Amino acid sequence: MSNGTAREVEERDVAVAGAPLLEVDGLVVHYHVRGPGKVFRSHETVHAVDGVSLSIASRETLGLVGESGCGKSTTGRTVLYLDRPTAGTIRFQGQDLSKLAARDLTALRRHMQIVFQDPIGSLNPRHTVGQLIGEPLKIHDLVPRNQRRQRVRELLEVVGLSADAVSRFPHEFSGGQCQRIAIARSLAVEPNLIVLDEPVSALDVSIQAQILQLLTDLQDRLGLSYLFIAHDLAVVGEMSDRVAVMYLGKIVELAERDSLYARPYHPYTQALFSAVPIADPRLSREHRRVVVSGEVPSSLDPPSGCRFRTRCPLAQEVCSTEEPPLEAVADGHLVACHFAEEAVRKDVFGTPVTALPTPVGGGE
Amino acid sequence: MTDELVGAVPVVSTEADRGGPGVPLLEVRDLQVSFRLERNTIYAVQGLSLQVRAGERVGVVGESGSGKSISALSVMRMVPSPGRITGGEIVFEGRDLLRLSPAAMHHIRGGQVGLIPQNPLTSLNPVITIESHFQEVLALHLGLSKHQARERTIELLRSVGIPHPAKRLQEYPHRLSGGQRQRVIIALAMACQPRLLIADEPTTALDVTIQAQILELIDDLVDRSNLGAILITHNLGIVAGHCDRVVVMYAGRVMETATVLDLFDHPSHPYTVGLLRCVPRLTATRSRVFAAIPGLPPQVTKLSEGCPFAPRCERATDQCGTETPPLEEIAPGHSIACWNPVETGEKIAS
User: Fold this and answer.
1) Residues with Cβ < 8 Å from A358, sequence gap 6 or more?
2) What residue of A is the nearest CA neighbor of B175?
3) Hey, how many other C-beta atoms are within 10 angstroms of the C-beta on A180?
4) Residues on chain B touching A364 (C-beta within 8 angstroms)
């Protein structure tokens, strides 16, 4: 990147100090939909996100995990104000987004970008790669017109594509290459925060690793912060400093990465861990996992109290009447469960984390 | 039940072979599939051979474009145009499927061979009810009346774990969640008690907890009915827990084939080793280093000599570029196509 050197980051410091880059407090996103009934249409509310609070520091990656429909993508979109929140505040670099005029919001979006799951679908098929990556430069008027093409070439190089891609169309590229183009486009405006919404789940595992390595290297070089949204705990674990687990619009557990992976408290988190395929035939035959039964209930009418209680083997009376608050069980480890301690002790889903191997240092 | 319709071809294997070490349920020999396009020809599958026995789950692993899905579709003779099967044999229960008449093939497809296609969200017809999907299949293959079909459908939906199956009959696919739709598709594939089940990336579009449920369901069905199964996936992590044997494909060719235990204990082809390294694993701490296979899988438009993986291979030598390595057995049941295989215990520099 042309000004890459200026922003080169010598060392990744754990950025706890200072105000966070992004602060989300009590975020609620409800959608109103028409219910059944032909004459007297009833109105129903989709509780997509129901009171989510999180923060992301500079140069930090927060992983957001959950199954489809849990509100993780909605959270990601709302953080950028692509969707309007029903309630709650979002502060980016200290500014409350709800108080900004549309013009200021556009200007601020320069500093926050998003990369979507479907790499091919998120690129306009009628635009060349040069137009796709050049568009944000044009909108924000960052580079004089005659230098735009040069800048696009540089960006392509940053994401590991050859400069002659400029005049080609998205359909000429594979899924992984399209994701590189999407990443180049998001980098064009030199953002501080990138929301990565399932950036690798549509890709082959061999290509996933390439993209994840690219994202990691870019973060180190450019000092980016990521909100990394995914459903795969193995991938999230490699990317994140802290991890939040969402279920039906709520955060059920939020902790430092190592703390969560060493000791997941919430039964739902344990169930997610248990569902990750074990890439070892012997371990996977020995390990009698307990697969969580049932499916996520409808967000039109979420269960009372704890939302996981309908699938939770530890559920008691109190779980249906009282909503468990998100409380610290250990230093910086927050859990929303009435029976967190019991859940850890019993480990009803046979979470395989106790036998976690040390990192695969790219070696064997 | 449909044997009189395909009676012209002698039936060699029978019930007696089930689970036995004798004649496999399915044997694919030297399969060739190519797509003739305007400007060039894509050689999607070049000489695939594999066997599936009753009660056995065979994983076919490879990146997109490796020919794994096309191979599966070939067994059903459903290769999309302009693709054509240009050579080889597909022997299923003693009959070469490539020589069957289209009418006879109709009875194999969805009858004796069930297919679970990749995308559960688009594989059901959105404008007909769940019940109609089953009625069609059950009437065609088993000649069941509407009433019989209804009872069988309820039973099938129950067996794949759909709650309140009777209430679901009149619903349209969009009313079901992704996981539920995949269950319906599995029930459809199982409707006529197939002998062979082909699952093409059955869980790619699903959440992890639902993925685990679906894979257990398939395992369970294979055990219960002594089926042969082909599980196509790009993730070796899934293969580890849910397959007995594995075929690793690259650029339309078999690179390595072995039992699951052998493959994970002694991966010998550099491509297999690379794929194994890529599998996302749960680890106690993170390394921020991701083992990837550099480059992209090729699209084979020229039949040339040499190993197709050579351009991405860290062990490639001159020979790899000029001579195609044959698929040779290095241990009983373990074959590889490589000039410079990875020795057991040897660590590959990355």
Assistant:
1) B283, B284, B285
2) A298
3) 25
4) 277, 347-348
From chain A, pick out residues whose CB is under 8 angstroms from the CB of B240: 277-281, 284
Residues of chain B positioned with their CB less than 8 A from the CB of A271: 209
For chain A, say whether B177 makes contact (Cβ under 8 Å).
yes
Domain boundaries, chain B: 3-14+24-112+192-336
Residue B345 identity: G
Question: In chain A, what are the domains?
Answer: 16-34+43-111+191-354 (3.40.50.300)
Which residue on chain B is closest to A349 by alpha carbon?
B209
Q: Do A238 and B274 touch (CB under 8 A)?
A: no
Phi-psi category of residue B260: left, alpha or beta, with phi > 0 → left and psi -120 to 50 → alpha:
alpha
pLDDT digits (tens, 9 = 90+) for A194-221: 999 999 988 888 889 999 999 999 999 9
Half-sphere exposure of A267 toward its Cβ, with a 13 Å CA cutoff?
Answer: 25
- Could you say which residues from 194 to 223 on chain B have a Cβ atom under 8 Å away from some Cβ of chain A? 207-213, 215-216
Backbone angles phi, psi at B9, to 5 degrees: -100, 125
- Smallest CA–CA distance from B286 into chain A, residue: A238
Cα B244 from Cα B52, distance rounded (Å): 10
Interface confidence, given as ipTM, is 0.81
The CATH number of the domain covering residues in B3-14+24-112+192-336: 3.40.50.300
Q: Are residues B196 and B230 in contact, defined by beta-carbon separation less than 8 angstroms? A: yes
Amino acid identity for residue B142 in this structure: L
Per-residue model confidence as pLDDT tens digits over A314-337: 999 999 999 999 999 988 999 999
